[in-house]
Design goal:
GO terms for molecular function: hydrolase activity, hydrolyzing O-glycosyl compounds. This is Glycoside hydrolase family 16 protein. InterPro entries: Beta-glucanase-like, ConA-like_dom_sf. It comes from Zalerion maritima. One of its GO terms (biological process) is carbohydrate metabolic process. Strand 16 and strand 17 form a beta hairpin. Strands 4, 5, 6, 9, 11, 12, 13, 14 and 18 form a nine-stranded mixed beta sheet that branches. Strands 3, 7, 8, 10, 15, 16, 17 and 19 form an eight-stranded antiparallel beta sheet that branches. The protein has one domain: Jelly Rolls, CATH 2.60.120.200. By secondary structure, the protein is mainly β. It is 12% helix and 33% strand. It has five helices and 20 strands. The N terminus and C terminus are likely disordered. The structure holds 2-acetamido-2-deoxy-beta-D-glucopyranose (7 copies).
């Protein structure tokens, strides 16, 4: 909790002390609250946070799975296939855990690097993708810090996915970035290529928007965010709302989070393949959400004995254009702010509710989503 919000609560805390009101046994046990400043305020019971700037080895992080599969040319609907390989996922940690800027240990941008390689392998473009282990992510505020590539011809995507008609994508086509007139669009999509292939013109609906970012996304890390709350989805860049979508394509199920970076040479979408290796860097993912898992729901009910108790809920600090401090704040790096949460690297009874094998099968079926809109 920021000093400012603590100060704001001080009178309430004092009166609670006087009246002998209850205290939470551990902070945030009733959940995490997104502020009303950037959309409507909502409470979320669960979290997933990954500090990729300080992650040395992706395989040790139980919240994420590196994706490995081939998409042949016909299925990729481009000039070439796509080869998603863990070889194109490289961690480049900052050795000093207290520093959040500067080069990674291998030099260059720090974080998790997702590369689209120059050159084909068996007719496919080497690409990269990770998927969250958890599949129970329902309403939530989903945030990723990323620095995008200035190499022409790739599609970078941060997306939430359930199936081809229930997905929320932020898709960045490097070929659309225009350095001459300083225009950097992001494609915001609430629907699938299947729906589009059926003649549904998303561009004319409330389910698609191409919006210019308020900055050049290739020169620095920025926060990309999608809030999925009951009847609507709001997209943000550095805390600034880009678009709100509230049509019938707003998902109604729980899903999972993915980050991907690929190319298939389709001139109408990804363009490319890139003429040099094209890296994007992910500094963090922070997800605060309600779980669809009944065990997680009853865990919340059991630990949240008094939602009005002092510190029972915690405010999620927001990254804004003027304030990047929130980017380096993680509840999971504080003492006692994630009690009874599933946190990578910490023992917990309910971790990995989905067996890895099932997950691999599910994810290779489910992956076909981010960025494929408009590709045929
Ligand atoms: C954290 O909370 C637990 C109760 O959930 C308590 O036993 C423990 O002392 C707390 N630790 C700190 C450092 O506050
Ligand atoms: C999330 O779940 C909690 C507990 O059930 C509930 O109070 C809250 O309103 C839910 N949030 C949203 C956005 O529905
Ligand atoms: C996605 O899931 C929803 C809800 O279960 C279902 O109605 C819809 O038909 C599914 N879409 C696809 C493409 O399977
Ligand atoms: C910048 O140039 C591109 C390509 O010509 C064009 O599509 C876009 O509308 C321009 N943007 C602005 C703000 O002028
Ligand atoms: C979507 O939001 C707009 C603007 O607030 C509102 O006019 C419209 O009725 C909403 N549509 C639905 C389906 O809720
Ligand atoms: C509430 O949490 C803040 C931040 O962790 C802490 O400084 C404060 O002491 C807590 N208040 C109470 C009453 O536990
Ligand atoms: C949360 O607490 C409940 C009750 O003690 C326990 O059964 C459950 O395994 C815990 N879950 C996590 C993720 O720690």
């Amino acid at each position: 909790m920021s000093p400012r919000s603590v100060a704001r609560r001080l009178p309430a805390i004092i009166s609670l002390l006087v009246s002998g009101a209850s205290f939470a046994t551990a902070a945030c046990e009733c959940g995490y609250v997104s502020s009303a400043d950037s959309g409507s305020s909502a409470l979320f019971t669960d979290l997933l946070e990954t500090d990729f700037l300080h992650l040395e080895d992706l395989s040790t992080n139980t919240d994420w799975a590196a994706q490995k599969f081939n998409l042949e040319k016909a299925d990729a609907r481009g000039k070439y296939g796509e080869k998603f390989t863990p070889d194109n996922l490289v961690t480049n940690a900052i050795s000093d855990s207290t520093k959040f800027t500067g080069e990674g240990e291998d030099g260059g941008d720090p974080g998790l690097i997702l590369t689209v390689s120059n050159g084909l392998e068996e007719g496919m473009v080497p690409s990269a993708e990770i998927s969250s282990d958890r599949l129970d992510m329902f309403y939530g505020t989903y945030r990723a810090g990323m620095k995008l590539t200035d190499v022409d011809g790739t599609c970078a995507a941060f997306f939430w996915y359930f199936n081809d008609t229930q997905e929320i994508d932020m898709e960045f086509l490097s070929t659309e970035f225009n350095y001459d007139n300083d225009t950097y669009p992001v494609n915001l999509v609430l629907q699938s290529r299947e729906a589009a292939a059926d003649g549904y013109d998303a561009a004319g609906t409330n389910d698609f928007a191409k919006v210019d970012l308020p900055f050049n996304p290739t020169t620095d890390f920025h926060e990309y965010r999608l809030d999925f709350i009951t009847d609507r989805v709001v997209f943000y860049a550095d805390g600034q709302a880009l678009a709100t979508m509230n049509g019938s394509a707003v998902p109604t199920s729980a899903g999972h989070l993915m980050l991907s970076h690929w190319s298939n040479g389709n001139p109408l979408w990804s363009g490319g393949p890139p003429e040099t290796d094209a890296p994007i860097s992910v500094s963090y993912v922070k997800a605060y959400f309600n779980s669809s898992n009944t065990q997680r729901q009853s865990d919340w009910e059991n630990r949240c004995t008094d939602i009005n108790a002092v510190n029972a809920t915690c405010n999620i600090p927001d990254v804004t254009a003027d304030n990047n401090d929130a980017a380096t704040f993680f509840f999971t790096q504080q003492e006692n702010m994630t009690v009874n949460q599933t946190v990578s690297g910490q023992d917990s009874a309910s971790h990995r509710s989905v067996a890895p094998l099932t997950y691999v099968i599910a994810s290779s079926v489910l992956y076909v989503s981010g960025c494929l809109f408009g590709v045929w």
